[in-house]
Design a protein that fits this description.
mainly alpha, 3 helices
Length: 137
């Protein structure tokens, strides 16, 4: 007799082993492990709510920005109707993230240049090289 045992769900391909397949792959449409994965998803939601209500405000500004950025990306993935495992989606996210980071660097560079120019003007005024009415930004 040939053993046809297959531990993987026919609906989503998950194995149902704790710590192996993510509950996020479960399609919740009558597969082998839906109930177990739904419990995991509920637990994740409860812990996220705890984090949001009790920990988020204690993070540094940089950590909060990192969290907010990731939250936005994951929210868009979750409600866009496309699979986050889709290679095209992953590449789009990487590309868009890189574009955003480049724009942020450009904005920072422009602001830094403006600040440096303003400091030069202030130093010139302090030295008496120009008065505050002749300073041009």
């Amino acid at each position: 007799m040939i053993d046809n045992y297959n531990p993987y769900c026919e609906k989503c391909g998950a194995c149902g082993e704790e710590g192996c397949c993510s509950a996020l792959v479960c399609t919740q449409d009558g597969g082998d492990y839906c109930e177990y994965y739904l419990r995991q998803l509920r637990f994740g939601y409860i812990m996220n709510r705890f984090f949001y209500n009790n920990i988020l405000d204690s993070l540094t500004k940089e950590q909060q920005e990192k969290y907010d950025k990731e939250w936005s990306i994951q929210y868009d993935i979750a409600f866009s109707g496309v699979s986050p495992q889709d290679p095209a989606v992953i590449e789009d996210i990487k590309r868009l993230t890189k574009e955003i980071e480049e724009k942020e660097k450009e904005i920072y560079r422009i602001d830094k240049e403006k600040v440096e120019r303003l400091m030069e003007i202030l130093h010139s005024i302090d030295r008496g090289d120009m008065d505050d009415t002749s300073a041009r930004y």
